[in-house]
Amino acid sequence: MFFLYILRSESTGKYYIGTTKNIATRLAQHNAGGTSSTKRYRPWKLVHTEAFGTLREARQREKQIKSWKNPAYMVKTLGIGSEQVGT
User: Fold this and answer.
1) Which domain holds residue 38?
2) Which tens digit of pLDDT belongs to each residue from 42-70?
3) Alpha-carbon distance 46 to 69, whole Å?
């Protein structure tokens, strides 16, 4: 299984969209500062996940969501609330 995940910065409210095979490990990497593009926006909270059978499917979904460009649209469309993790 591969996962699309969306993180929300607890310090700034920014969102980060990515794919991974292991969500817990990836979230820990983001929060430990192991990813240069997200290091300065820590801490991160997982707010949405979707499971896929292949990495290609997960990356296609990632690309689709990133193409929306508008975080408010993403939040509304995916039903992301400040305290929920969606599937």
Assistant:
1) 2-78
2) 999 999 999 999 999 999 999 999 999 99
3) 19
